[in-house]
Amino acid sequence: MTQQNVFSVEDYRRLAQKRLPKMVFDYLEGGAEDEQGLAHNRSVFQQWRFKPKRLIDVSQRDLHSEVLGKRQAMPLVIGPTGLNGALWPNGDLALARAATRAGIPFVLSTASNLSIEDLARQCDGDLWFQLYVIHREIAQAMVLKALHAGYTTLVLTTDVAVNGYRERDLRNRFKMPMNYTPRVMLDGCLHPRWSLDLLRHGMPQLANFVSSQASSLEMQAALMSRQMDASFDWQALRWLRDLWPHKLLVKGLLNADDAQRCIAEGADGVILSNHGGRQLDCAVSPMEVLLESVAKTGKPVLIDSGFRRGSDIVKALALGAEAVLLGRATLYGLAARGETGVDEVLALLKADIDRTFAQIGCADMASLNRTCLEPDGGAQSASVGPSRVKGTLA
Predict the structure, then answer these.
(1) What is the DSSP string of 285-347?
(2) Given a cut of 70, is residue 322 above it in pLDDT?
(3) Name one GO biological process term (predicted).
């Protein structure tokens, strides 16, 4: 596939699959159990259809939006993903720099291959930090590092009390560092560009744990197997709220009542997410709880999982989401063409959002609301109580 034939996120997915060894691509692509959740995350967007408005001046369109009280170029965030260095050398930095150029935030994962401090030194964009709580003392140390390094927002991930049953990774025996079995070595030989990058730059490490602190190897192993602190509860959330003085988001919610309580406990907003289908295979899509969560919280509701088109993003925004976090979409660009690929995917999605705005008769974010959509069969009812979103469904 030549660069001239790349027109969609799916095209970048195919390029990524060609460049990456099967074990690494499966880590990027795979979901939990039978992977029905992956398909559901994509199919759920068909529950809503656009209802365009005509004879509106859309000659000039403005995608600027306000996310957590800050004005940014478009309502997107590059979400937290781990082991990005296995997809492309210095993958975290490439994603962060692309986000900065696009005028949107980047969320560094606890499972990053670049440390909290190193990313802040090398990138001056709006940096957020995503926290996995494995050990409370380690978590506190990381939060304080992010605070001192100038990160503006803390994202607590709550949906990994135990690891999702990811059969692709189990069959491939995927872990870091990799086991160099004959099969793995043969696969590397069949993907020479990836292998040469690995030889030049070395095996990526979980940089936030490469220290003399508290059994680093044990913590890295726990993170790889998602052995999180399963005792983390509402009281622990209050402890974290007291520790972090800036914006705090709680990620991994699929229940509007949980979202409402997070706000009551001091969170500044929530991120609806089913972890991209990687944790519980039969979970609902975040889109299916978006309307109710917006109505019950009265605070910023962000969302991720399954977004591949600008039209997907516009649907979520019309239903009240303040921003959409990108996961695999930008990772496909990274794995295919590095930093340039991330730039291209973001530009593609921006153009897609802009085109959708023009097609449905919206000139800016302020004119986008639920009246732009019509439920198609199984979509949830709009009768979920008061909402900060303008308009009601016909």
Answers:
(1) PGGGGHHHHHHHH-S-EEE-SS--SHHHHHHHHHTT-SEEEESHHHHHHHHHHHHHHHHHHHH
(2) yes
(3) aerobic respiration
pLDDT in tens, 21-64: 999 999 999 999 999 999 999 999 999 999 999 999 999 999 99
* Whole-angstrom distance, CA of residue 355 vs CA of residue 358: 5
pLDDT of residue 228: 77
Question: Catalytic residue numbers?
Answer: 275
Q: Which of 48, 232, 64, 205 is nearest to 138 (CA)?
A: 232
Q: Is 304 marked within a binding site?
A: yes
- What is the model's pLDDT at position 211? 59
pLDDT tens, residue by residue, 221-232: 555 555 678 999
| Residue 151 labeled ligand binder | no
Q: Measured between alpha carbons, how far apart are the two ends of the chain, in Å? A: 44
The 3 state secondary structure assigned to 91-121 is HHHHHHHHHHHHCCCEEECCCCCCCHHHHHH
Residue showing tokens 């043969």: 186
- 273 labelled ligand-binding: yes
Q: Is 29 left (phi over 0), alpha (psi -120 to 50) or beta?
A: alpha
Structure tokens at 265: 């406990």
Ordered domains of the chain (ranges, CATH):
3-375 (3.20.20.70)
**Is 130 annotated among the ligand-binding residues?**
yes
Residue type, 278: R
Residue 168 has pLDDT above 50, yes or no: yes
Parallel, antiparallel, or unpaired for β 70-72 and 76-78? unpaired
